[in-house]
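Could someone model guanosine-5'-triphosphate with this protein?
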Amino acid sequence: MAKIFIVDDVEDNIKLLWYNLEDDGHEVASAMSGQECLDKAPGFEPDVILLDMMMPGMSGIETLTALKALPAMDNIPVIMVSANDSDDSIIDALDQGAHDFISKPFIYPVLEARVRSAVRLKQSQEELEAANGRLAMLASTDSLTQCVNRRQFFELSGSEFAKAKRHAHPLSVIMLDADKFKAINDTYGHAMGDEALLRIADVARGCIRESDILARLGGEEFAICCPGSTVDGAIRIAERIREAIAKEVIECNGQTAQFTVSMGVTEYTGAEQAFDQLLNRADRLLYRAKEEGRNRVISGV
Ligand SMILES: Nc1nc2c(ncn2[C@@H]2O[C@H](COP(=O)(O)OP(=O)(O)OP(=O)(O)O)[C@@H](O)[C@H]2O)c(=O)[nH]1
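Reply:
Sure, complex below.
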């Protein structure tokens, strides 16, 4: 069953197609002009549009061009239906983005077969788009924690940095590293280490805003880009994360463990030319936090 939208200025033509298509189990809607089609078709979300070429006012080709310019409609196959089946007319319709062309008078079973073919094409396009979306997600996400990965972090934070620079808005960065993580792995096993990484991601997610970007850069190292936050705001976030993690008890294979994290926090001063300068400074501050005893937040600009 497909959703088919018929556009024709002659009511009897619509009725004939409507009854046949409904008999074949399709859901049908219609319009009697190009403008009515533009108004009604997006709400109907058709799988295929059957569009008459010769209509008073807005022609079929003009309607087709307008449909292709609508983001919600540009992927919907349009089959032109016309008594004017000159070569030029067919070429024009296909060049303007029509999926197919059917001459009037048509043989209904042939028209219905072409509708089914257009629906199959649309379905495989949708499957391909969904698969591409899943691939893009896999390519940009850390598989253990579902945080964005290093590459995606640099891409997203780079564009936030450019915005902060353009509009002179604050932007802060937090670098986070689990303390003595090797010891967690060595004492309790790698699975407990993974549990700790998952807990860091969960706790951090609960402490940041929707607009902040949380990434696992690799190993036990995470970063958070906080657009719109001054260093004081970012220190508050970092302290919340540090305190929460220090209280967490993680469990794996009947064992329990506790751990801490250290963080370096800094803010864009207006002098940095690129985002990685900011991240490098946060990294140096994180190193100081480790040197000064771990389980602490060190900030600076
Ligand atoms: N379980 C687990 N361990 C990981 C993963 N990635 C990296 N590691 C381990 O993380 C540990 C990092 O250890 P180090 O770099 O020595 O740092 P640390 O022990 O945290 O010491 P400090 O950072 O100085 O507090 C190594 O043992 C890595 O094998 C992972 O995905 N899962």
